[in-house]
Amino acid sequence: MVKRRSPFISVLSNIASMGLGHLYCGRPVRGILFCALVVASALSAAVFYQLTYKFGILTAFFLGSVLIFISALADVFIIAKHSKDYKRKWFNRWYWYLLYYACFLFLVSIVSENIQENFIRAYKTPSSAMEPTLQIGDYYIVDRRIYKNHEPSRGDVVVFAFPKDTSMLFFKRIVGLPGDTIEIKKKILYVNDRKVNEPYVKYIDDETGEIKPKDDFGPATVPPDSFFTLGDNRNRSFDSRYWGFVSREHLRGKALHVYFSRDVEGTIHWDRIGYKIE
User: Fold this and answer.
1) Under a CB-based contact definition with an 8 Å cutoff, are residues 201 and 232 in contact?
2) Cis geometry, peptide bond prior to residue 213 (ω within 30 degrees of 0)
3) Strands 165-176, 226-230: pairing kind
4) E-strand spans in 119-198?
5) What is the value of pTM for the model shown?
6) Is there a contact between 261 and 269 (Cβ–Cβ < 8 Å)?
7) pLDDT in tens, 236-246
8) What confidence tens digit (pLDDT) does each residue in 100-153 have?
9) Would you list the domain boundaries of the chain?
10) CATH code for the domain defined by 121-272
């Protein structure tokens, strides 16, 4: 399974609070412009990242957001320093501050949801089913639109709705396309009677004993508009060997990059940040 994460809404909601300082100092338009600039850059980052698949686009967005936030704080400080005789205006009341923040947070949530539904969405890896490609604690980005314009390919790491319970999301690797004949013999994968080279695969026994290893499978033919998926950590992956095929309508996107990684002990894995998922 995978867990949804929303980095955009958390970043944008924090940025929204900086407009309160400008509102307090009598510069509401200035504060709104700072916040709007960040929202616009978030949308631009999502669009350009989807067009280029360059992780540097998201890095630039993050650094740009930090710079804008610092600039906004500095701007408020300068305004406050030169406004010693400032007289409160009609909007300098606590309820207007609360209304401002609530309205902006609402708009931010709409923008964030639009980005996640139509461009990219973030998820967190909760299990070892895709190790070593995706490790527990990896936060990764999924392209939501790619399969609207392109056909899925063998080797794609995808997020999809679990066919037996579509409220659950799984992440696996596509190994079989419509019409392919899939067979596993003594842990070796064959597609259309050809042995597949899988350097990313590992076999570690499931410590809980919940998943019984399936070293042999098939042959089975993939139905139309469906796909056969496997986890890279085969002995700990609950995949198509156990419950069948994934229909195209259940695909939610393709995994692209790890943008953050932290293990259960809280240690950040800096070498994983920016890792391209292949």
Assistant:
1) yes
2) no
3) antiparallel
4) 120-124, 138-143, 157-162, 165-176, 181-185, 188-191, 194-195
5) 0.76
6) yes
7) 889 999 999 99
8) 778 777 877 787 777 777 778 888 888 888 988 999 889 999 998 888 888 999
9) 7-118, 121-272
10) 2.10.109.10
